[in-house]
Specification:
With 461 residues, this protein is of the alpha/beta class. It folds into three domains: 65 residues, Nucleic acid-binding proteins (OB fold (Dihydrolipoamide Acetyltransferase, E2P)), CATH 2.40.50; 197 residues, Vaccinia Virus protein VP39 (Rossmann fold, 3-Layer(aba) Sandwich), CATH 3.40.50; 141 residues, OB fold (Dihydrolipoamide Acetyltransferase, E2P) (Beta Barrel). Helix content is 24%, strand content 31%. The protein contains nine helices and 24 strands. The strands form four sheets. Strands 8-23-24-22-21-18-19-20 form an eight-stranded mixed beta sheet, with helices on both faces. It has a seven-stranded mixed beta sheet with strand order 1-2-6-7-5-4-3, with no helix packed on it. A seven-stranded mixed beta sheet has the order 11-10-9-12-13-14-15, covered by helices on one side. Helix 6 links the parallel strand 19 and strand 20. The chain starts with a strand and ends with a strand.
């Protein structure tokens, strides 16, 4: 149902009924046979919206007035930037409804493949801390009409939403972001303009160690400008003494890739010391690590429990990052081999194994498929393998080589149900069947969901 007013289509006001949410948590309605995308709108709600842009097949709009509210609409929390920011698509939804949405998202992804029909999907693990859980953030620095903004891009634009107090961020991240914004304005540091391709400061990356209440800050710049960035760094460590490491990353390339290849230590420690459970971890700026520590700890423990490694076997951890899962497996296995493409993360992983006195871990940097081929003779059949790939999932060649190793168990940790289901279906054709899947709410207030899948050989399943 839609009631258009008599205006041009852009900036036109329309009354809509939201029919469903897409995978990103954006409300969907239909108007004149076109899909209308409405952020911060829930199924069943009647809303008055204004059209922001119109494409060939869909329309982008934002809510002007909520005519009716869905029972799932949250009254516990909210964010003034929810209409325009890309960071928390489900924050307007009651938390129990968020969990149902994510459970269904995993179920729908797996339901696409008949080979996964018998896999048991366990109830999702809810997060103990639905707000303030993010211990790392990569924020855009922008400037418009003389005012500096630090936050995320506004929907469908390169305008920066100045977030200030993000409800998902650890409080120390918010404190640092506001302090940096204030000093950039005071010093008049040249902010990057993507439209012109000119300027110095592009991004602010902050990683917090919740266990120590310390932070590492990385300024991403277009060039190695030592003077301006050093002034900013020295001011920041005085203003916010919890900042124990300041780095500069140089990224002169066009596009939305945040970190460049060169990172320079400016002040303090070269890495941030953190702790998850009883594992101590050193994390460098370019290394990946989970943003939600309590849920990361639960994932580590579930992987270890399912793996049930023995002292006479070698465990394999692909896409191992800084070694968190590998080191947890090393407490039971005879040896663990971690493979990771990012060399800085591999150095962190080796340091972390020494830091935790685990001398049965070793790590290799390189392409997963190539290293698996090189190590084929070394990896005996019947071992345990763990994969934790990025959102795009595993390459088919990696899965083929993994299956050829004939592991007694494969554990797949994923942040994308769609690519997880695709890869599990392919593994089923190679003789590895999915027994069970544990969804995890790693990212409350967002549409994203983590999953852990346990696979066994077909004859054992």
């Amino acid at each position: 149902m839609a009631k258009p007013s008599r205006q041009k289509k852009t900036q036109q006001q329309i009354e809509l009924t939201i029919e469903r949410l897409d995978d990103e948590g954006v409300g969907i309605a239909i108007w004149e046979s076109k899909k209308v995308l409405v952020p911060n709108a829930l199924p069943g709600e009647q809303v008055k919206v204004v059209v922001d842009h119109e494409g060939r097949h869909q329309i982008g709009a934002r809510v002007l007035k909520r005519l009716t509210s869905a029972p799932e609409r949250s009254r516990r929390w909210g964010c003034p930037h929810a209409e325009e920011c890309l960071g928390c698509g489900l924050i307007s939804m009651d938390y129990a409804a968020q969990l149902r949405f994510k459970q269904q998202k995993v179920s729908d992804a797996l339901g696409t493949y008949p080979s996964l029909a018998r896999a048991e999907i366990l109830p999702i693990w809810e997060a103990p801390q639905p707000l303030g859980y993010r211990c790392s953030a990569k924020l855009v620095i922008g400037k418009e009409r003389g005012r500096v903004s630090i936050g995320l891009y506004r929907r469908h634009s390169h305008q920066v939403v100045d977030i200030g107090q993000c409800p998902l961020h650890h409080p120390l991240i918010n404190e640092i972001a506001m302090a940096v914004r204030e000093e950039i304005e005071r010093q008049g540091v040249w902010v990057y303009n993507p439209a012109r391709g000119s300027g110095l400061l592009r991004y602010l990356a902050v990683r917090v160690s919740p266990s120590r209440n310390e932070a590492m800050v990385t300024f991403v710049t277009t060039e190695r400008n030592y003077r301006e960035v050093t002034h900013l760094a020295k001011w920041l460590v005085k203003k916010v003494p919890q900042v124990v490491s300041v780095q500069q990353n140089v990224n002169s390339s066009a596009g939305n890739v945040i970190l460049g290849a060169q990172t320079l230590k400016m002040l303090g420690h070269p890495a941030l010391l953190d702790q998850v459970g009883d594992l101590r971890l050193r994390i460098s700026p370019a290394s990946f690590f989970q943003v939600n520590h309590p849920q990361a700890e639960r994932i580590y423990e579930r992987v270890r429990q399912w793996a049930a490694c023995r002292r006479d076997e070698l465990a394999l951890d692909l896409y191992c990052g800084i070694g968190g899962i590998a080191m947890n497996l090393a407490r039971d296995a005879g040896a663990v081999l971690g493979i990771e493409a990012v060399e800085e993360a591999v150095r962190n992983a080796a340091d972390n194994a020494r830091l935790n006195h685990l001398d049965n871990c070793r790590f290799r940097a390189g392409d997963a498929a190539e290293l698996l081929e090189d190590l084929e003779m070394e990896l005996a059949p019947g071992a345990v393998a763990v994969v934790n790939p990025p959102r795009k999932g595993c390459e088919a060649e990696v899965l083929k080589r993994l299956a050829a190793l004939a592991p007694r168990m494969l554990i797949y940790v994923s942040c994308n149900p769609v690519t997880l289901a695709r890869d599990l279906d392919l593994l089923a054709t190679m003789g590895l069947v999915t027994a069970e899947i544990q969804p995890v709410d790693m990212f409350p207030q967002t549409p994203h969901v983590e999953s852990i899948a346990r696979l066994v050989p077909k004859e054992a399943g």
